[in-house]
Specification:
Layout: E1 2-5, E2 14-18, E3 21-25, E4 40-43, E5 53-58, E6 62-65, E7 69-71, E8 84-87
Antiparallel strand pairs: 1-2, 2-3, 4-5, 5-7, 6-8
Length: about 90
């Protein structure tokens, strides 16, 4: 049985080659956990598959600089850099 990586963006996608054909096994693409926010909070789930979103909010007295919502892309990276909170 031969085992090879078929997609550099998925950590679990492999195929198995047998004498009588190929059995394909593909798992979901998953992004790493989004970075936490200083002086704010992250509203998100525990696993981040393609299409999942993470929302950032700042504490009172701070303003969010950047995108408030980011999405997990098919490339297994977030759509935008994490924002930050600035005191005003």
């Amino acid at each position: 049985m031969e085992q090879k990586d078929i997609n550099k963006y998925t950590r679990k996608a492999i195929y198995f080659s047998f004498n009588d054909g190929i059995f394909l096994y593909i798992s979901a693409i998953e992004c790493s956990s989004p970075l936490p926010l200083v002086s704010g909070r992250l509203i998100a789930g525990g696993q981040y598959f393609v299409g999942s979103t993470a929302q950032y909010m700042c504490d009172e007295g701070f303003v969010l600089i950047g995108e408030p919502i980011i999405s997990c892309t098919e490339a297994a990276i977030w759509s935008h850099a994490p924002p930050f909170c600035k005191y005003f």
